[in-house]
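Example is below:
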Amino acid sequence: MKRICVFCGSSMGYQRIYREVAEEFAKQMAARKIDLIYGGASVGLMKVLADTLMAHGGHVTGIMPQHLIDKEVAHDGIHQMITVNSMAERKTQMLEMADAFVALPGGFGTLDEISEVLTLMQLRLSDKPLALLNIKGYFDYLLRFLDHGVSEGFIREEHRSSLIVSLEPKALLQKLNSFTPVEMDKWISDLKTESHAG
């Protein structure tokens, strides 16, 4: 695993622990010589992650739509900035370039990126793992929603289980390395059987 794309907030959050764990995660990546791909911003947890990684010798690539660069939120100190035309193109570039994905606390954009990767994993359009760094239980309500989807029959247990969750950066990276994608043929066959059952 050479490159991880990290989704996270353009805000800092109200509690210092979000920043502290983002810093620790960046240090763990740098120690393993894992490059960072991220949204390219110079604000929030995005900036913390990029700055910490670079301070510890890591390589950082940002991917940002032109309209956000025009708003002067681009990080001009990173190694590489890839300019794209839209948010959708940004996600496509991230999906192509990264070997794995990690989400730290964030807002709507982070939720959108998590959903996109989970959907592509489900359809086996991507075999790359996704992990949530669940700082201070930030993603607990999302995980409860996913569990509810399983209990109500709209999310398959094997897809729910394919989402890696960890409270600690080092353990998260270890889990990413041992990821195995879900076999698609079986669950498609199960869906057909369920749909034709009385």
